[in-house]
Design a protein that fits this description.
By secondary structure, the chain is mainly α. It has two domains: about 1-50, Arc Repressor Mutant, subunit A (Orthogonal Bundle), CATH 1.10.10.60; about 65-215, Orthogonal Bundle (Tetracycline Repressor, domain 2). The protein is about 75% helix and about 0% strand. The protein has ten helices and no strands. It has helices at about 5-25, 30-40, 45-50, 55-75, 85-95, 100-105, 115-145, 150-165, 175-190, 200-215. The protein is globular.
Length: about 220
């Protein structure tokens, strides 16, 4: 297949092919040669746009992140919900959206990939916490539906716990380990008057753990 004359179409072809392969085989199980074979592009055509498989992966994650941000912004700005309702809905939406399963299939265990783990933590602390979670906590504190003082710190703690500690994409975890973490998370957040996680969300995390473990067998 000849290289597309339009650079944006070539980039889209590479990203679509890589996304498909990452979902089917995982990041670690996909080689740059697999992407070359899937796109039928030359190695030079791939390297003209991306320096490595890692750069392709980061671009795909960036696209997913942009779509997620639009969805989270819609919840944050929903005038029909109070702060407490928005807080639960924003976590439910993040967990239950089909994008989340795609990310789980694509992303390698972050504990074994320090660079990707650093990107995840930086995004949580520098983007998601101040732009989405803190404003919701501020609104909840103002409308009386949430009782919390330091909203920035609380936003960071909630995200680090649910996205880093509870989420099975960080390291291999059994369903029982994930379920226990969810229970502890619920006990802690309920004690702070925050309604964040429910039984349906627990089961989604547990199923993600099973899915990840099965993919590693």
């Amino acid at each position: 297949m000849a290289r597309n004359k339009h650079p944006e179409e070539t980039v889209r072809l590479i990203l679509d092919a890589a996304s498909k392969l990452f979902i089917e085989k995982g990041y670690d199980g996909t080689s740059l040669q697999d992407i070359i074979n899937e796109t039928k592009l030359s190695k030079g055509a791939i390297y003209h746009h991306f320096s490595s498989k890692e750069e392709i992966f980061e671009r795909i994650c960036g696209q997913i992140g942009e779509a997620n941000s639009a969805r989270l912004a819609a919840i944050r700005d929903d005038s029909q919900l109070n702060g407490r309702e928005k807080l639960k809905e924003i976590f439910r939406s993040s967990l239950l959206h089909p994008n989340q399963e795609a990310v789980l299939r694509i992303v390698p265990y972050l504990l074994d990939n320090p660079r990707f783990l650093a990107i995840e933590v930086r995004d949580l602390l520098n983007v998601v916490a101040p732009e989405f979670i803190q404003p919701i906590l501020d609104e909840g504190a103002a409308d009386g539906s949430i009782q919390v003082e330091n909203t920035r710190a609380m936003a960071e703690v909630l995200l680090l716990m649910i996205d880093i500690w509870v989420n099975p994409m960080i390291q291999p975890s059994t369903p029982e380990e994930v379920r226990e973490r969810c229970r502890v998370f619920i006990s802690m957040t309920n004690a702070m008057g925050l309604d964040v996680m429910d039984e349906e969300m627990i089961e989604v995390f547990v199923n993600y753990s099973r899915m990840r473990n099965n993919s590693q067998e």
